[in-house]
Amino acid sequence: MSESGVARGGASPSGLADVIDTILDKGLVIDAYVGVSLVGIELLTINARIVVASVDTYLRFAEAVNRLDLSESSGEGLPELMKDITSQGQVSGKGAEPAQGALEAAGEQPYDFDSDQEPQESARRRRHEEG
Amino acid sequence: MAGATTHEAAEVQQRSTGTYIYGLVPADVEVSEDVLGVGDPPGEVRLVRHGEIAALVSEVPLDGRLGTPDDLVAHERLLDATAAEVPVLPLRFGAVMTTPDGVVEELLAPHHDDFLAALNELEGRVEYVVKARYVERAVLGEILAENPEIARLREEIRTQPEELTRQERIDLGQLVEQAIAAKRQADTEALTEDLAALGVLTVERPPSHEHDAAQVAVLIETDREDELEEVVDEFAARSEGRITMRLLGPHAPYDFVATPGEETER
Lengths: 131, 266
Hints:
By secondary structure, chain A is mainly α.
């Protein structure tokens, strides 16, 4: 995300993940009010997104921590380096630097970070165009 | 209501459709014609009125299943768009009754006064949700710096082949997870405190992602969005580099309606 901070949801629909967070376990529950006229319709299985720490979670965190020292060991001075690259419009005689910059940029967004939201992003966009 | 008569005829045959309910609104509301509901093809959304309240409904086929991404988004979009204009009591996704008459007889009529009172209470207010998420690299860096045990364990693992360190890596990950949970609690409290300073109701939501720093719902007057944005911006500025923030809304007040007997479940 950009430095300017807060992403604004605005009037556009939020991503599917946000929708699921909201409408599947919040709001009034019809069963509490209604008896004979209630219809039990089959719902597609949707796993509410509850964080349950598991072995997989732990291994992922361990891997993330291990990835961290790669960027740390080459991290010193990199912000300046990147600024240089930017100010020079990426035209640089020092060939190694852009490559390092790319590595650093990749480190900013570990591959598993938010990967669960990717398909939902396209869903959101599709809805957005409709409206 | 010609629609209801047709519907009853169909029901005699095999009750092929049900009445899906989105939420409850004051009776003097109107639904624009182009609003699409859940189901495939999407049902036409209309109002079933009783006294001073009404239910937003559409017919859904009973032989299908509900819950596609389009269904979920349709449910929320309709309620959020409604909430931006008028008070609305949102129902949890998936509420279906037999017929519109059933909605009146079993839902609207018996609970008319309670629902009306709740709607009056919500008048002029909407929900926003503030979502804060950790920048993984930043928060892991903090954790390594603050927890010698975690740093030590990581060094130990680094010098050994991966296949020999499965248990150690699980232990390491678990410590990291616990450290994030502790940070999450502190950051959620800090954000909630900032938001509550606006003199509004807040509800802390449980995390829905490993990297969540905080999720807090706020019920605030429609014309105070600027003030809310200011508080969120300030928090974001203070947390820059370690937390990214999103402000979602206006929403229907999903987090601020209570079903009788449900409050203690969480």
